[in-house]
Amino acid sequence: MDPWHYIGPENTVYCLLSFEGPDPYSRAGGLGTRVTEFSRTLAEKGYETHLFFVGDPEKSFQERLCGDRLTLWRVAQDVSRYYLQGVYDGEQEKHAVYSTVVPHLVVQEVAQPAIERQKAVVVMGEDWHTAESMWRISDMLFWRGLRRHAVLLWNANNVFGFERIDWDRLRMTAHITTVSRYMKYRLWEHGVNAIVIPNGIPGRYLRPVNAELVHVLRQELKGRLLLVKVGRFDPGKNWIAAVRSVSRLKHMGLRPLLLMRGGIEPHGHEVFAEIDRLHLLHVDMHTSAGAADAEIVRTIAALASKADVINFQFFVPEAVQRVLFCASDAVLANSTHEPFGLVGLEVMAAGGIAFTGSTGEDYAQHLLNAITLDTDSPDEIVGHVLYLREHPEIARNLRRVGRITARFYRWEAIIEKLQSKLQHLLM
Q1: Residue 151 in contact with residue 138, Cβ under 8 Å?
Q2: How confident is the model at residue 5 (pLDDT cuts 50, 70, 90)?
Q3: pLDDT given at position 427
């Protein structure tokens, strides 16, 4: 039987290409989370899966997980040893190595052996760093007479690097996908009619949050208006409006407390300059390596008495982050440009209330499962916070429906959507 008559774990091999990956060294934003959870879920569903990324130079070149169904390939490690500040440190040198090495690994080590075993191959590249690799893979498969046994997909998670892409060549060699209708419209600007396949969240995000820690945090911060914001320090994340809304709520006597986790980007200096200009009291919070979740929560409570803003200077464990989402009055995922908005879904899954923008957050419906903001004005944030305080029954309903919404975006469900799209591409 032609392996393309249907798609299943027994006849299909996936190769995922990404600059970011599962190593702490390799994570800088949502892309690392996306490919980590996507690849793991594919493997858990029984698919032979290979993930090629710029990995930690101190780890092994190749690592097998999930009963050997998931293989991690760490590339450009010789370059990464000279750039220890993370995946995008030395970006240009890493990109040159990645674009040379990965096509040979994909074709020679994975695709050709799989095709010889009568299996079909799906290759999916993420963002501009992988565009050159995709057309090189296509050319190599073509000259070996193997191209018809593979489907090549290139996915746009953001508009970063669009000016670097040879769009005509990419369109000729790969089907182009993206993560939201908003990004589909942005790709039209480049003459591309992309296929929309949304992002997903792992099923574990739907497990109950630690109710005891949520109760402790709410009790310790009783009388405070708790706000949370997590994201890179990028102007598009609308940090300035977030801190200005905290200032306005403070002047109204509502005693807000903003718990924030940013990045290392230069825009962070502007954010803290604005915090100082607004005379908001802020403290940096550090923890010891391996600190228990309860210890982190107690430290937050202890610092809250002398702060309007607590800036986390550590990697916030997943379980603690979910507690913060659930315990807060609002999570400010208020981006002015958001290709998909993964944080909003994570908040919903934890039973929190997400304040999202109105760009790529296809899943967000105003006053049904989230608060969707139409402007970059801090007044809009303040107005909705006040509205929810006056209508607690609406706030409760947002939390309930948000959790229901999140279930439709589990990676297991998204992979089913992907497979239906692949079946369409095979016709």
Answers
A1: no
A2: low
A3: 62
- On the question of a common fold for 3-200+411-425 and 204-407, the answer reads yes
Q: Where are the domains of the chain?
A: 3-200+411-425, 204-407
Helix and strand counts by DSSP (H, E) for the chain: 16, 15
pTM over cut 0.70? yes
The H-or-E segment that residue 28 falls in is: none
The residues near 133 (Cβ < 8 Å, ≥ 6 apart) are: 17, 98, 99, 102, 103, 106, 125
Sheet containing 70-75: order of strands: 62-65, 70-75, 48-54, 12-17, 120-126, 150-156, 175-178, 195-196
pLDDT tens-place string over residues 318-370: 999 999 999 999 999 999 999 998 999 999 999 999 999 999 999 999 999 99
* Helix or strand (DSSP H, E) at 296: helix 293-304
Largest Cα separation within the chain, whole Å, is: 71
pLDDT digits (tens, 9 = 90+) for 68-100: 999 999 999 999 999 999 999 999 999 999 999
For residue 230, which of 314, 303, 131, 140 has the smallest C-alpha distance? Answer: 314
Residue 18 near residue 53 (C-beta atoms within 8 A) = yes
- What percent of the chain has a predicted confidence (pLDDT) above 70? 98
* Residues 125, 306 contacting (CB under 8 angstroms): no
Pairing status of strand 309-312 against strand 354-356: unpaired
Half-sphere exposure of 329 (CA within 13 A, CB side): 25
Residue 420 is predicted with a pLDDT of: 87
* Alpha helices by DSSP H, 45-166: 77-80, 91-104, 112-116, 131-143
* Cβ neighbours around 302 below 10 Å, total: 11
Neighbours of 326 (CB within 10 A): 24
- Which of 176, 306, 320, 179 has the alpha carbon at shortest distance from 261? 320
In this structure, which CATH number among 1.20.1640.10, 3.40.50.300, 3.30.70.2740, 3.40.50.2000 belongs to the domain 204-407?
Answer: 3.40.50.2000
The DSSP bridge partners found for residue 226 are 257
- Amino acid letter, 261: R
Q: What are phi and psi of 15, to 5 degrees?
A: -120, 120
Report pLDDT for 424.
74
CB atoms closer than 10 angstroms to residue 147 = 16
Please give the CATH topology (third level) of the domain spanning 3-200+411-425: Rossmann fold (3.40.50)
